[in-house]
Amino acid sequence: MAENAADRGTTSGGRPTARPDLAAMVVPLGRALMAAEQPVLDAHGLTMWAYTVLLYLDETPVRTQAALAEAIRADKTRIIAVLDDLEARELIRRQPDPEDRRVRLLSLTTEGRRLRDAAQAAIQEGEERLLSRLPAADRAGFLRSLHTLSGLPELTARKPGRGPSRT
Amino acid sequence: MAENAADRGTTSGGRPTARPDLAAMVVPLGRALMAAEQPVLDAHGLTMWAYTVLLYLDETPVRTQAALAEAIRADKTRIIAVLDDLEARELIRRQPDPEDRRVRLLSLTTEGRRLRDAAQAAIQEGEERLLSRLPAADRAGFLRSLHTLSGLPELTARKPGRGPSRT
DNA sequence: TATTGTTATACTCTATAACTATA
DNA sequence: TATAGTTATAGAGTATAACAATA
């Protein structure tokens, strides 16, 4: 999607374009933000998927692994190893539902919540440094626009999606 | 990287967060924008990589394939099939450099330029529809911020990168 | 010997299919 | 028979290594 166009307001040949393609700016920015998260997650012993799970589980238990997978746009088979690890480290609980023993009830442990909060705080601290480079007026519009566009239904249409991995 | 946090200003458990992680909004937005480009590119018979190449080649010839690959953050082996196809369709020229016959000089053909312009016009038309959903004031700040952040050196640090594919 | 482009191979991540256990 | 979870297999996409041509 023509990432490089991001650096140019005009093409290398001088043909004037009103602006680079939106995706050509947004996608590389997203990659950069993920790359910036990586060392923080490493320091907390979390993969991107694990962090995603911790963020989503939050204080509210989730009734099935399939529901969790759907919610975070992952394949249900893809999160199993992640849950195995998080459970082994006692960051989440995975208890069989007494009412339907096929189901595993998922919830955060205190330690899981603590780790998630610590990781998120560190991540957002780094993001603040980036946002501080923006004029205050632009920054507000940027965040509001991100929120708006992220929530647009025509952009949120469900597809499996590659998920958080960023090899 | 916790895409879902994008839909929430607060977590499901009620813990108030100032905002979702930046990456949790930007990355899904980037995926959505790429997905929106896809049908347009299909209609023009272009893959995302091919479009990226056409955008970069522009009117200015590039001296080596390796330089092109580096510029668009692709592996040099990855673009060969793309160049093969574009050349076969006479959208680009790939001529051995008389001064160093190891080198292939790359340039756009007239038809290649025409196709690129048509595709980009259609893509940006679709993007305008999205941007029109934003308040005029926010929109300006959004685009300016995107430009600024995309150009930030600490975010542009070169890494191979997965490139434009979005399976 | 070093470099450009190419081909062949291996690796990573993801999705699909097959299996177990509960219902 | 249908569903939740799991395991095993296969498929994309990418990177690495080996190669041919030219310098």
UniProtKB/TrEMBL annotation, chains A, B:
One of its GO terms (biological process) is response to stress. SUPFAM superfamilies: Winged helix' DNA-binding domain. Residues 19-151 form the HTH marR-type domain. Gene3D superfamilies: Winged helix-like DNA-binding domain superfamily/Winged helix DNA-binding domain. It comes from the Bacteria. One of its GO terms (molecular function) is DNA-binding transcription factor activity. PROSITE patterns: HTH_MARR_2. Pfam families: MarR_2. This is MarR family transcriptional regulator. It comes from Streptomyces nigrescens.
